[in-house]
Amino acid sequence: MAAFQTWRATAGPTLRPHLAEGRDLPGVRNRALTGGRQAGAPSPATGAHQWPGSVGELQGSVWCGAETPRLSSDLRTSEQVPPWLTEQDVQTLQLLAQGQVVGKARIPGHGQVLQVGFSAKGALQDLSPGLSHLCSQGLCGLIKRPGDLSEVLSFHVDRVLGLRRSLPAVARRFHSPLLPYRYTDGGARPVIWWAPDVQHLSDPDDDQNSLALGWLQYQALLARDCSQPGQAPCLGIHRAEWARLALFDFLLQVHDRLDRNCCGFEPEPSDPCVEERLREKCRNPGELRLVHILVRSSDLSHLVYIDNAGNLQHPEHKLNFRLLEGIDGFPESVVKVLASGCLQNMLLKSLQTDPVFWESQGGQQGLQRVLQTLERRGQVLLSHIQTHNLTLFRDEGP
């Protein structure tokens, strides 16, 4: 923890969200970001609240307007940080984007990613072999493939909607002599924060889960009242967590979690579920398994989202509604953002805080199509909620 505190001390001034005078959103006005949490803590900085209070208040805020506030692309100097990014988020994003690479390691069975350890000016150098000490202090990240850059967008979608379940992600161009050439060829790559307390099953063939869960068992969980997650059949996870996850995956069309076998839509021939013949199992629901169902040891009742590269090219007539199966309600605060019509402008402002990602995608013009896609999917989800008369619940807890 001392190493991460040293990074925080050298990363720049304390940042506070800013809203136009007279247009503050409830819960944001007095939210002084004072920090105080360990890097591995799952919840946002102390004092963060759910927002907005109403659709109208969100629409009247500076963050919904087409005109961009005077944002700096350098989070160390910007005083106008979007209110959906906590102090903890900002510090972790700075670490991933600017931290000096001091070590690397391969992840067994995952050859497409590289784990790296970071240091910062003024931090004590870790001379121990491997990265375990750095990673236990929250000073590690995963460098992924250039094709996974959409995970950066997914992180910002998570924060703009107020879900706060995805691990921080940035785009970065590496120049470290410690890295293989393919990581330093000038191309932008996503870097995902390595949360030190994510739980993994001991089975090497199922290490991308904290718990083994089949489709039928998952549907049975949704049918139960798991408002008290301590009940044995509920696996310790609050029922509302599944609604948040389903909403997130539907907007981004992330299939490789709730529907790895592509049972809910017609996949392309090049999709892994086709190439690996996973779709053949759709005839027997008892064989279907969920993947990337993860929790953290510091907060066993809340899910954490990884591998969030969605499918933003997926046509609207092929949307996978199986991702919403069994869900009978959604968080009210998230629905307010979707109903406000502000999602595109909020995402534009959020993504500008990542200059490498912004440039790699062609700026506002290059991002316009994918953001319009997300906006339309949000409207489709709202129609789904109305058509099926689904309930809205108020968020409780982090």
UniProtKB/TrEMBL annotation:
- What domain of life is recorded for the organism? Eukaryota
Coiled coil, from the record: none
Question: Which GO terms of the cellular component aspect does the record hold?
Answer: Golgi apparatus
Q: Which Pfam families match?
A: FAM198
User: Which stretches does the entry tag as region Disordered?
Assistant: 1-52
State where the protein is found.
Endomembrane system; Golgi apparatus
The protein in question is named Golgi-associated kinase 1A
Family per record: Belongs to the GASK family.
Keywords for this protein: Golgi apparatus, Kinase, Membrane, Transferase
Q: Give yes or no: UniProt keyword RNA-binding.
A: no
**One Gene Ontology MF term:** kinase activity
